[in-house]
Amino acid sequence: MRTLIAGNWKMHGSKDWSRKPAEFDETLPSRQRTGIDVLICPPFPYLAAMAKACEGLDIAVGSQDCHANSSGAHTGETSAEMVADCGATYAIVGHSERRAAGESDSDACQKAEAALRAGLIPIICVGETLEQREAGEALSVVEGQIKESVPYGYDDYVIAYEPVWAIGTGKVAEISDIKEMHDHIRGIVGANTRILYGGSVKPGNAKDILATENVNGALIGGASLEMADLAAIARSA
Ligand code: PEP
Question: Which among 196, 219, 229 is the best mutation to test ligand 1's pocket, defined by most ligand atoms within 8 Å of the CB?
């Protein structure tokens, strides 16, 4: 199974950031990335330019969200078809920052299905809050999210396990907790689905996280903004 190193730029960047894929490739050329898929998810307005900038570099581009419908009167929204039309091949859905803004498992599921219909690979994000972990509910919460957020009848999707309390906080889950959760998720999704870990992954902790059984890559926020850091994480995979 190929390791996926995915950068989520969130609401960062500018047109000028189209130079970043070439910067990444200079630091870690594609011939040195055997067995690793690299993905960058910029804000919507930069998708097409990023897809063009990634041409020939073996770096994929994805969106950070998509709408469940193909088109229609949905002011401010972007469909999976539009994302694909820009040259992207992945879409993150159900990120905890969107769940915090009211997105449900059912919304994430419909978005994931829309992404699949449009030929994109959805990265379906799940993860428990600190309260849920402290209450001993982490495994059951994540299991419930997966059962409700993964569309029925598809298998070309990625799960990103991102403990909410570890995102953007500098706190990283213990390797033993990551292993326990990823083993649990493996039992739900089967042998062929990539399971990413996300939550303050950085060059200094990536090696141990990526060496953990059933961790098939990482979803990286803050550290994906610097190509040297993203390349160092990919190199440690
Ligand atoms: C994320 O946004 O998915 C994420 C994991 O962010 P960070 O790496 O900054 O914690």
Answer: 219
Neighbours of 194 (CB within 10 A): 21
Structure confidence by residue, pLDDT tens digits, 162-196? 999 998 888 888 999 999 999 999 999 999 999 99
Model pTM above 0.90 = yes
12 labelled catalytic:
no
Asked if residue 126 has its Cβ within 6 Å of ligand 1, the reply is no
Is the CB–ligand 1 distance for residue 8 below 6 Å? yes
Looking at the chain, how many residues does it have? 237
Domain parsing of the chain, residue ranges: 3-236
Residue 179, classified by CB atoms within 10 Å of its CB into exposed (0-12), middle (13-18) or buried (19+), is middle
Q: Which atom of ligand 1 is nearest to the CA of 200?
A: 10
Find out whether the beta carbon of 200 lies less than 6 Å from any atom of ligand 1: yes
Of 113, 162, 182, 184, which one is the catalytic site residue? 162
3-236 maps to which CATH number?
3.20.20.70
Q: Is 92 in the pocket of ligand 1 (CB under 6 A)?
A: no
AA letter at 165: W
Distance 129 CA to ligand 1 centre (A): 14
Quickly list H helices, the chain: 20-27, 47-54, 80-85, 96-99, 105-117, 130-134, 138-149, 175-189, 203-210, 227-235
Q: How far apart are CA 87 and CA 192, in angstroms?
A: 25
